[in-house]
Amino acid sequence: MKNQMIMFGGLVIAALMFLVSCDKDTDPADRDLFVGTYEGTITFNDNERTIADEDGRVTVTKVGDSYTFVFGSGIPDLTGVRFESGDNNTYVSIGDGLTGITITASSLNMLVTNDRGTWTADCSR
């Protein structure tokens, strides 16, 4: 019985953290745990195929200081992205092959080119 109460309490805390992290006014940089979905135009090109979706989605997750961008429409994900603070409460990506991403609480803009391909996003939430 005691183990069940501990497990239930843990689930309640995890659910509350998830709900707080999904608030549309939440800036991803302000949280160690963040999940948010941005919607808009997304594209990907790897010289063999081009994928474009004007009604695309990008789900952004942040754990600690590492971001993951999960794209819809069959576009490959970007993982292990790190950011530094920019102007006007924006955060700009840093690192080899992952520069060109700007994120705020309400917008995601991306132009990333590396050996895997080119990603673009012009999205909001």
UniProtKB/TrEMBL annotation:
Protein name in UniProt: Lipocalin-like domain-containing protein
